[in-house]
Amino acid sequence: MIIDFWGWNFHKDVEVAKGTVIGGEHTGGLDAGSDSTPSLLTNHDGSLCIAAHESQANYGLPVSMQLCNEEDERQHWNYNSTTGLFINPIKNWCLFAGRPDMIGQQLKTWGCDESNPQVIWDYETETAPFSTKLIKSRYGYNGQYNDGKCIKSGLAVDDIPTMDTCDETQVDRQFDLQVIQQEIRYENVSPEKVYWRPDGMTMEYSIGPAQVAFREEKFISANDVVSTIIYSDIPLEIEFTGKSFALTDFRSVSKNATCEYDELNNAIHIVEGGRVLAKVSEAPEVILEADLMYSGMSTVLSSSRVIQSYSQVELEPGECRYTLRLPVDSEGTTLSWTMNDDYAVALGAVQDVLSDPVQHKEAKTEEMNHLLNYNVPYFRAEDEDVVKVYYYLWSIFLMLYKYVGTGQEVHHHTQTAVNNFLGLHNWDAIMQINVGAWTTNKPTWAYGNVLLWSELPLTAMSSDGKVPDNMGQAWNSGLFGGNHHWQHACGAWQIYKHSGDESFLQQSYTFFDNLATHAGGVYGENFDASICLGKMASALGLPDAEITKWNEHMERYGGLDWYLNQRWDANRSCWLDCDENSPNGIHRWGQIGKAYESYFPDEWAREMGELKYA
Fold first, then answer.
1. Which of 2.30.30, 2.60.40, 2.70.98, 2.150.10 would CATH assign to domain 7-24+186-354?
2. Its pTM surpasses 0.90
3. How far is CA 188 from CA 55, 185, 321, in A?
């Protein structure tokens, strides 16, 4: 099977649900009476509205009464009480009367001019006991004819409003300026505070000039569903956009993803697909066409609220983008996501979480508390920050663990490269194996990082006994990361010392023995491996020849004593190739690291650490 080897670059383009917060005037937007806030100019009962002429061909065309419709821009008027202008936003023309001092004059639209009394109006005299008001010409026609009249609405669709006497008792003189609930979009909102815990993250935002409190509580449930519970102090909407995974890229050969809204299940279903170029060998470099790593998998996105305003577009053949909206308020709205080879399984997992998201979140908290209290060594110190770092590092270790249960991945193990789709790395496993030895439940949290490599066929190993850099269910890397994997043997020995599990010891020893036999011995300067393997053979009660054969590794380097003394500079307390320009032997990190080996003399390590540099 050929897989996409360049996954770590692809992950940067993942877009599942990017949100835009949508509010209105209650988030601190503009009020009625602002130039930028459109309103409907309705009659006394809100049934008819003043609308600009449908053609908008030129100045001087009459306005008319139309059935009120917020979507009709001809009915949008931005009123500014200071200038007195009613501006229609289509061409920024103003409500106009040729002789606003004369009864019967029809209303039209004209160019806006704050010095022209024909376009200046007052909307201020409330018609008690109604909330409607009169619209009166502020100045009339000019200084001589300054008896401004009021607007009189038509009584039917297409009637043209005219000027008439100001009489608040007449319903056809009564108008209401109804603010259109304008959307105010807040793009790329960043949290003001972020609280990280191993059971989830809380992110706090302030939205708009009104500083509306908005909060997300993110967590990953036990069934691998990623969820966020979103709360807002006042009702808002969030518009989410996302897309299928593959994108236009020099590595993309073809794309055939699909997006659809499953209305019955209130879920967005994306089936990923495509072909990519995959690097399957570094030396020599071999690049072949392969299936996208997600090909055929189903992505499911669903919510505790009904998905609204769903739409999708095809960005390119086989690449789709979707948009949805969700209402958010103080009751909370949950958005959940997962992937699986089977749509029904993915959908079921998401629906399980959405049936009671708070319970799943609390279960995650309980599980992490249990692990940190009962599965790792207890630690306290005077410096609380040190304690936090200690449990933070343990949390990361525990959170990287996964269980696949198929193919070569039949043991629990760390998924150390969580963003690049690769499996266990043999370099990372050096540390993780040793850390796992200190857990309580070692079959789950320790054994797998050692034993997973034993599931690989010997043909996956290099001729000199190196294991692949990383591996997965049915593939192995063509890269080999040096001889450092032999340090896994000492990690396995430490696990045995902490557990006494001879079955685990036997499995581990058999794997390392077969690997060494395949390669004709242990190579590299990791002599600790041979020392530990000799101890393992002894603990298993194997014959002396089986125990002493591991000394051959060190004999190839002249034996441990000769090897050490040839590389130690006693005059400068320096190991191997310390800085020749430094009279006191400045140490490089790689050489200091040698002090970690069990055979490295303690007094040398102490000298290196206490050395006073010039």
1. 2.70.98
2. no
3. 38, 10, 18
